[in-house]
Amino acid sequence: xxxxxxxxxxxxxxxxxxxxGCRRRQPRTTLLRVxxxxxxxxxxxxxxxxxxxxxxxxxxxxLEQALRKEARPFRRALRAPDADVDAARLxxxxxxxxxxxxxxxxxxxxxxxxxxxATRGAAxxxxxxxxxxxxxx
Length: 137
Ligand SMILES: [Zn+2]
Fold this sequence. Notes:
By secondary structure, the chain is an alpha+beta fold. 40% of the residues lie in helices and 16% in strands. The structure holds zinc ion.
């Protein structure tokens, strides 16, 4: 048994998790959490469910990898050899779970890619608002 990781001093640091599909190590904020709930494997988009979790890139290829060999990668990562893995159901909910995590990353604004820089600059400056210029048009 491993003790709970993540102390208060680590709060600012994004923990790294390994994708069960491609085995790449990624910041956990970019990964989807998968848990066993009621004996079946499900996505945990908010990453709040208790218990052991497995992690998956938001890439359908990684889901397929994790589902190979009767989902052995999932079962191993979750230490749940008897868990019920409904591949069709997971595929169906994958899109939704992925959207959730994208939203969490992107924040409330869903603008074009360039807008991220503008937002960051505005937040840093704090004074003048760019909106003022835009309103005139
Ligand atoms: Zn992956």
